[in-house]
Amino acid sequence: MKKILVTGGAGYIGSHTVVALHAEGFQPVIVDDFSNSSESVLGGLRAIVGTDVPVHRIDCNDKAAFRQVFEREGDIAGVIHFAAFKAVGESVQKPLAYFRNNVGSLLVLLELMQEFKVWNLVFSSSCTVYGVPDQLPVTEETPTKPASSPYGRTKQMGEDILRDVDQAPGNQFKTVLLRYFNPIGAHPSGLIGELPLGVPQNLVPYITQTAAGIREKLTINGDTYDTPDGTNVRDYLYVGDLAQAHVVAIKRLLTLTWPVVETYNVGTGRGNSVLEVVKAFEKATGQALNYSIGPPRSGDVPAIYADVTRSAEQLGFRTSTSLEDALASAWRWQQNLSNE
Ligand code: NAD
Ligand code: WQD
């Protein structure tokens, strides 16, 4: 079994990717400091995959501790680097923490991968690198824009660092940069899913918490945008599909020879408005949602969705889960959480 180190493997996307890796015959090894996840995820993972997933509880910025992981694990075929802070608003308040964690941990990881000659890397990037795009859908060639938040800048810096390192002599890094659009939903078992701390900033957790009665109502952030119904448009993809994209990317890296830096959009290729998501949630779950229209949220991109031609043609990857099914899975997860 090929061993894949999954930094941030206890987090939302990481935990689903651990399941997908296991299902395809890989041995995932989690590296996580649980700064934004709960140990309870490990029980969910065990129940889903039928065995304990190895875990190293360390901060990826702690080089000495991280080096011990490489030493103890031995033969590592590749790394998927999810570990990062991801709250856009918080990054404006705490930019240093974001640069330290997101850029710093990547540098430590790359130095250790070089030291231990582990050359295959999948990096979590984001559609945030496109900013407000001039045309839709966005392809990987669509020019990136100066990021509107320190968080976004950490993703752009991460991409730049990886492209530079890849070109440099003396190493053989092979890298896939995955630019995720908006991941939603949870594992069909309802055993793992998104665990937002405090008031959710993202749309789908806010919707499910409203339906569960934890929030009084959803406020839709503006309905006067230049979009078909005036609300923002995004490309919402099922987290299980996104997890699968990582497996496909790792498999591809294992077949390629250096040099490789490939960038892929990971989305559905469709845009849905906030109102459409609300309606799809109501239809998928039978829950009537209390919502009202509020003012626009500062810094929001009016509309963005992916052109997925490259990921379909080169990676052979397409999403397969509908918006309604993804929303139904998010609701199942919320109900499980509320019943705990
Ligand atoms: P998450 O917060 O649920 O998962 C991140 C995990 O990394 C957490 O378990 C956290 O404890 C861990 N972590 C953070 N810093 C660490 C460190 N220094 N050392 C060890 N572990 C650390 O987030 P997620 O939604 O699963 O996102 C995963 C990755 O995908 C992130 O890099 C994020 O920026 C990127 N991304 C997320 C989205 C999204 O909408 N969720 C979209 C685009 C990109
Ligand atoms: C989606 C839509 C909101 C909450 C974020 C990050 C981005 C990337 C993806 C990581 C928007 C609207 C939301 C609410 C609402 N992440 N909304 N009421 O803004 O596309 O992007 O996730 O890389 O960097 O910024 O996602 O889920 O916050 O919002 O009307 O209570 O829902 O205004 O139009 P977003 P989101």
Model description:
The chain has 340 residues and is α/β, with parallel strands linked by helices. It has a domain at 3-184 and 237-267: Rossmann fold, CATH 3.40.50.720. Helices cover 41% and strands 17% of the residues. It is built from 11 helices and 13 strands. The strands form 4 sheets. A 7-stranded parallel sheet has the order 3-2-1-4-5-6-11, sandwiched between helices. α6 (150-167) links the parallel β5 and β6. α1 packs across α8 (239-255). It is globular. The two termini are 35 Å apart. The model has no long low-confidence stretch (mean pLDDT 97). Bound molecules: nicotinamide-adenine-dinucleotide and UDP-4-deoxy-4-formamido-beta-L-arabinopyranose (WQD).
What's the short story on this structure?
This protein is α/β, with parallel strands linked by helices. The protein has helices at residues 12-23, 40-49, 63-73, 88-93, 95-115, 150-167, 203-211, 239-255, 274-285, 309-315, 323-339, and strands at residues 3-7, 27-31, 55-56, 76-81, 120-126, 174-180, 182-184, 218-221, 233-234, 236-238, 260-266, 272-273, 291-294.
How does the SSE layout of this entry go?
Layout: E1 3-7, H1 12-23, E2 27-31, H2 40-49, E3 55-56, H3 63-73, E4 76-81, H4 88-93, H5 95-115, E5 120-126, H6 150-167, E6 174-180, E7 182-184, H7 203-211, E8 218-221, E9 233-234, E10 236-238, H8 239-255, E11 260-266, E12 272-273, H9 274-285, E13 291-294, H10 309-315, H11 323-339
Parallel strand pairs: 1-2, 1-4, 2-3, 4-5, 5-6, 6-11, 7-10, 8-13
Antiparallel strand pairs: 9-12
The structure holds nicotinamide-adenine-dinucleotide and UDP-4-deoxy-4-formamido-beta-L-arabinopyranose.
